[in-house]
Design a protein that fits this description.
The complex is a heterodimer of chains A (565) and B (238). Chain A has 565 residues and is an alpha/beta fold. In chain A, 64% of the residues lie in helices and 8% in strands. Chain A starts with a strand and ends with a helix. The relative contact order of chain A is 0.08. With 238 residues, chain B is an alpha+beta fold. Chain B has three domains: 60 residues, Winged helix-like DNA-binding domain superfamily/Winged helix DNA-binding domain (Arc Repressor Mutant, subunit A, Orthogonal Bundle), CATH 1.10.10.10; 54 residues, Diphtheria Toxin Repressor, domain 2; 73 residues, Ferrous iron transport protein A (FeoA) (SH3 type barrels, Roll). Chain B contains nine helices and eight strands. Classes of the chains: A alpha/beta (565), B alpha+beta (238). The interface between A and B is medium-sized, with 34 and 31 residues.
């Protein structure tokens, strides 16, 4: 038995999915969090059923790539469709509901966000709605689990709706007006604190300073917490751990195996042993910053701030051929480029998706990279960190501007639903942070270990020296870096954080570190990002994007060499 | 007075003073390369036919009827400009003068036919918004579908519609016409922006940023260009 979850974007389908299947998926308060479908198993009485969480759609006629996924899921057929509705927006949501009912599949309607509707003074008569639609209607509050049992029971009793048909959209909307009038009572209420905040955060005169303040506070908070965690937790731990593990390894092995496992120096960042640097980079350096980053991102997401940021920055993004909604991939890219590349699907045109994916992966370092850049450059002073991010930001804007002029194709306008502010639910916030951190660890630890092995092979076989010599004219001549930096750049393809880590033993000046960090960020995507880019942009698109950034990296690197050294 | 001359004057006043402002006699004279004395004379007869309000020594302002004439002629002018540059490939520098000569001799029917052929363009080559037609349609799709049969070409009484972007913050309007390609119109309709629906403009953002509006109790951010193609009947402000 197959059950399909369908509904408008940002109504809580993914939360219901988690509730029904126990599978954890990331959810947030903005339209387009889910861009792919997820399948899970759920218990339906004695039987097991497959539940599919499809991306949100406003109608069955898709207008974007994300919506096509849902349409496709629907066309493939489902035994029961669970139509999730945002109770605070009954009318708009019923448009999809009526389209689903027109198709004549067994359907159940879940009136989600019931608590928010009550809070807003909206009362919906579920019995009357059931009568109007001819299918079971259940009120739910997915984040707290209220109504989920009733929903499961209703799925079991789902039946084919009475036939309905509408000639056109106007007729459908007329019927919606009729249903709403018969089933919904809206009472007036006073604006709450959140409503007032909504007003402040989107009005340009207060919204722009507020955006700057929020970003500033967010990053200060992330850095403060990250440094605290590093100083008080991970560094003392790794100090003790490295002595212990080095002792243990040295007492059992020697020679090559020892070098591979714990390296030759006791310094954690410079030894390049799988058990020392290989664990210290992901767990000791990146993790302390990643946890607060995802917590802060989660809070901003769940409150619903990101769509406001999109509105505030829309005019700016227009100059580079994008629109405000492209802020989402950019913000996600500060965490990890992989989900960020997937999220460009929310953009309408191929040109926009290409631009957003290229610019974001090229000029926005992921959290692991940022943590390493901070770790490396912080001892030399804030100035150098500003130089790295300043160069990348300028590159982002200038490349975007130039590409926008060169690439043909349309740049459609923003058309975005602005969800109301919601109080983040601490439980789901923690769960989301946990899922994201776990994804990072699953991805990072093996790749970093692999990186350590590859690097040691390069080093021991003399390949490192050879590559250094071969690339000497570029790396030293153009970029002004020691020729050994070439290997770091190449290993950086596996993971950017090890690439930066490999700069540590080269004893470079802070200026050289600035250049190498910028070049490493820009010249090539990491392998994980490369794979999703291939999937999203196709081979030709990815190659074009990569060639472009290679050229841009050399250009920017050389310019920095001339300017700051 | 010949129709062409009336239209030239109305257009000049509209260009100088917009829908509501006052155009000075000297400015109009300069624009049309006429003597101020003869401009004053024409103003007199235009005022008599109810197209302008003339205030001696201050200038002329368009009446509602005058504005209607101005918008109609501007619509033809801009459609001609698009037609000349896009279809005939005339140098963009020259299309303005050509359109100035042709605009007076084509009927509304020809103008609307051009609009349909050009797929309902929103702006002329220099970026000015083209005002909508006066047909009794709710979206441009209806016009497209009626390509063969001319039945839907009945003209309604002139309606006073403005682009959504002309509303003031917190002002209400009722959607009268959606212009644009099928995909945009569908998207608008999916989110409940259908003809006859009431919308409230919440706020505008500077530098051509998006418009925030409220429709069926949902807040939407809509790009400026899309909002310019949603025409509404503005409600009188409370």
């Amino acid at each position: 038995m197959k059950i399909l979850l369908m509904g408008n974007p940002n109504v809580g389908k993914s939360v219901i999915f988690s509730r029904l299947t126990g599978i954890e998926v990331v959810s947030a308060n903005y339209p387009g969090t889910t861009v792919e479908y997820t399948e899970g198993r759920m218990k339906l009485g004695e039987r097991m059923a497959t539940l599919v969480d499809a991306p949100g759609v406003y109608s069955l006629d898709p207008t974007s790539q994300v919506e096509e996924v849902s349409r496709e899921m629907f066309s493939r057929g489902a035994d029961v469709v669970v139509n999730v509705i945002d109770s605070t927006n009954l009318e708009r949501n019923l448009n999809l509901t009526l389209q689903i009912l027109e198709q004549g599949r067994p359907t159940v309607v879940a009136l989600n966000l019931w608590d928010a509707a009550v809070h807003k003074g909206i009362r919906i008569d579920t019995v009357a709605l059931e009568r109007e639609l001819g299918v079971p209607v259940v009120a739910t509050v997915a984040v707290s689990g209220q109504g989920i049992h009733e929903l499961v029971a209703a799925i079991g009793k789902a039946r084919v709706p009475p036939p309905v048909h509408f000639e056109n959209a106007d007729q459908r909307w007329a019927r919606i007006g009729e249903i709403a009038a018969r089933t919904q009572v809206v009472s007036h209420r006073h604006p709450t604190l959140l409503d007032k905040l909504e007003d402040i955060s989107i009005r340009p005169i207060t919204g722009i300073p507020l955006a700057v303040l929020i970003l500033y506070l967010s990053f200060s908070l992330i850095i403060e917490i990250g440094e605290l965690l590093q100083k008080k937790v991970t560094d003392p731990f790794f100090f003790a751990y490295s002595q212990f593990v080095t002792g243990l390894v040295e007492s059992h092995t020697s020679g090559l195996l020892r070098d591979l496992l714990v390296g030759t120096t006791p310094e954690l960042l410079k030894s390049f042993g799988i058990l020392t640097t290989g664990l210290y980079i992901p767990l000791g350096v990146v993790l302390p910053f990643l946890i607060p980053f995802y917590l802060v991102l989660g809070i901003l997401e769940d409150i619903g701030y990101l769509p406001r940021l999109s509105v505030i920055l829309d005019a700016l993004m227009h100059r580079i051929g994008l629109h405000g909604a492209a802020i989402l991939p950019c913000v996600l890219g500060m965490g990890c480029s992989v989900p960020a590349v997937l999220s460009v699907r929310i953009l309408e045109s191929p040109k926009q998706r290409y631009l957003a994916a290229t610019l974001m992966t090229m000029a926005i370092p992921c959290a692991s990279q940022s943590a390493m850049i901070f770790g490396m450059l912080a001892p030399f002073g804030l100035k150098y960190i500003v130089m790295v991010y300043g160069s990348l930001f300028l590159t982002f804007v200038i490349t975007g501007f130039v590409l926008h002029k060169i690439i043909g194709g349309e740049s459609p306008e923003i058309f975005l639903e602005i969800p109301p502010y919601r109080m983040p639910n601490p439980g789901s916030l923690l769960k989301k942070t946990f899922i994201r951190v776990r994804e990072f660890l699953k991805e990072a630890v093996p790749y970093i270990a692999l990186g350590m092995v590859v690097m040691n092979i390069f080093y021991l076989s003399g390949l490192m020296h050879f590559i250094g010599q071969a690339l000497h004219p570029v790396v030293s001549g153009l970029l002004g870096l020691p020729s050994d930096a070439a290997t770091a750049l190449i290993i950086g393809f596996l993971r950017k954080d090890i690439g930066i880590g490999m700069f540590a033993p080269l004893d470079m000046t802070p200026e050289q570190l600035v250049i190498s960090s910028v070049v490493l960020a820009m010249y090539f995507p990491c392998v994980a990002t490369f794979m999703v880019m291939l999937k999203e942009l196709g081979v030709a698109g990815t190659m074009k994007s990569v060639a472009l950034r290679l050229a841009a990296a050399l250009l920017v690197g050389t310019a920095l060499h001339l300017l700051i050294m | 007075m010949p129709k062409e001359q009336i239209e030239e004057y109305i257009e000049a006043i509209y260009d100088i003073a917009g829908k509501t402002g006052l155009a000075k006699t000297t400015e109009v004279a300069k624009r049309l390369h006429n003597a101020p004395a003869s401009v004053t004379e024409v103003f007199g007869s235009l005022a008599q036919s109810g197209l302008i309000r003339y205030e001696p020594y201050r200038g002329a302002a368009l009446t509602d009827a005058g504005e209607e004439v101005a918008l109609k002629i501007k619509r033809k002018h801009r459609l001609l400009e698009v037609f000349l540059s896009e279809i005939l490939g005339i140098d963009p520098e020259k299309v303005h003068d050509e359109a100035c000569r042709m605009e007076h001799s084509i009927s509304d029917e020809v103008g609307d036919a051009m609009c349909r052929m050009l797929n309902a363009p929103a702006r002329c080559p220099c970026g000015e918004l083209i005002s909508p037609c006066e047909k009794e349609i709710a979206t441009c799709n209806e016009c497209r579908n009626a390509e063969v049969s001319k039945d839907s070409d009945k003209f309604a009484a002139p309606r006073k519609v403005v682009p959504l972007t002309d509303l003031r913050p917190c002002q209400k309007g009722t959607i009268a016409l959606l212009r644009g390609d099928k995909k945009v119109i569908q998207r608008l309709s999916d989110l409940g922006l259908t003809p006859g629906t009431e919308v409230v403009l919440m706020r505008k953002t500077p530098m051509g940023g998006p418009i925030e509006l409220c429709v069926r109790r949902t807040n939407l951010a809509v790009g400026h260009e899309i909002a310019d193609n949603i025409f509404v009947k503005a409600a009188l402000e409370a």
